TrEMBL record:
Keywords tagged on the record: Glycosyltransferase, Transferase
InterPro entries the UniProt entry points to: PRTase-like (IPR029057), PRTase_dom (IPR000836), Pur/Pyrimidine_PRTase (IPR050118), PuR_N (IPR015265), WH-like_DNA-bd_sf (IPR036388), WH_DNA-bd_sf (IPR036390)
Annotated protein name in UniProt: Phosphoribosyltransferase
CDD domains documented for this protein: PRTases_typeI
UniProt entry tagged with the keyword Glycosyltransferase: yes
Gene3D superfamilies found in the cross-reference section: 3.40.50.2020, Winged helix-like DNA-binding domain superfamily/Winged helix DNA-binding domain
Coiled coil: none
GO biological process, one term: regulation of DNA-templated transcription
Glycosyltransferase among keywords: yes
Lineage, broadest ranks: Bacteria, Thermotogati, Synergistota, Synergistia, Synergistales
Pfam families: Pribosyltran (PF00156), PuR_N (PF09182)
SUPFAM superfamilies noted in UniProt: PRTase-like, Winged helix' DNA-binding domain
């Protein structure tokens, strides 16, 4: 009996981790394992307590006859800081400094180890946003956004800077970039459902024009932005095109030309 329960617990946890934020019926789980809903409820309580102790999430259970359970991302603050501090230290290598006071970070965002952690952090930060879909722009924001969407159990819509025939019909939006030039974003009409609640994710914010452009795209679809998450924000310019955003890291240029990367405080 003990071995049977251990196997059942492992299989339930595996299902939660492979499908975060995806609700599973307690009745169906009870039927699948050939036990009562009371037994399943006890199992889930044990799993929830263990995941909370690990600091990576909580299992939410909806009551009632059709009740279900799902893994909600909820990262403990010390783990959040440890992960971000590791990346900040990695990016402070002065060999990463690029012209224009930029920092090379593509290898971090395209490394699944780091991108998954960053997505977990952003999903935890915006777990209460009640978003329907995650939006980003090509190219470097995509891995960050896809892992955020994965942990929230949401689809992803990508704004393009040129329209592709394979994307089907698209809506184009013009917006003003940082240096004053007018740029264009495209969003496929099938990619973003009208009236959606949109969580916007971007890799880097200097003046905020790209995020502002994505907000304009959302407006064209009658969608409502419910949050903006950014991997790294530059301290300059101090005034951004958007007011409300949450950044994970902050980049500052020091007097000697070196770049300082620090972890933003979680609010």
């Amino acid at each position: 009996m003990k071995a049977e329960r251990i196997e059942r617990l492992i299989r339930i946890v595996t299902g939660f981790l492979l499908n975060p934020s995806d609700s599973v019926s307690l009745t169906n789980m009870a039927r699948q394992f050939g036990v009562s809903k009371t037994v399943i409820s006890d199992d889930i309580s044990m799993i929830d307590a263990s995941l909370e102790k690990e600091g990576i999430g909580r299992v939410n259970v909806s009551k009632g006859r059709g009740g279900g359970a799902f893994l909600k991302p909820s990262l403990r603050q010390d783990i959040r800081y440890e992960w971000l501090e590791e990346i900040a230290n990695l990016l402070e290598d002065q060999g990463r400094l690029l012209p224009g006071s930029l920092v090379y970070y593509s290898d971090v965002l395209f490394n699944p180890k780091y991108a998954s952690r960053l997505g977990h952090i952003l999903a935890s930060d915006f777990s209460e946003s009640e978003a329907d879909i995650v939006m980003t722009s090509e190219v470097k924001g995509i891995p960050l956004a896809i892992f955020t969407a994965f942990h929230l159990g949401l689809p992803l819509a990508v704004c393009r800077f040129r329209n592709r025939a394979s994307d089907g019909p698209a809506v184009s939006v013009h917006y003003q970039a940082a240096r004053g030039e007018i740029r264009t974003m495209f969003m496929g009409t099938r990619n973003l459902p009208r009236g959606s609640r949109v969580l916007i994710i971007d890799d880097f914010m200097r003046g905020g024009s790209t995020v502002s452009g994505m907000m304009a795209v959302a407006k064209e679809f009658g969608a409502t932005p419910v949050g903006v998450g950014v991997f790294m924000v530059s301290s300059e310019p101090a005034e951004k095109a958007v007011d409300n955003y949450k950044a994970l890291l902050r980049m500052e240029k020091e007097s000697d030309g070196a770049v300082k990367i620090s972890v933003e405080k979680s609010i």
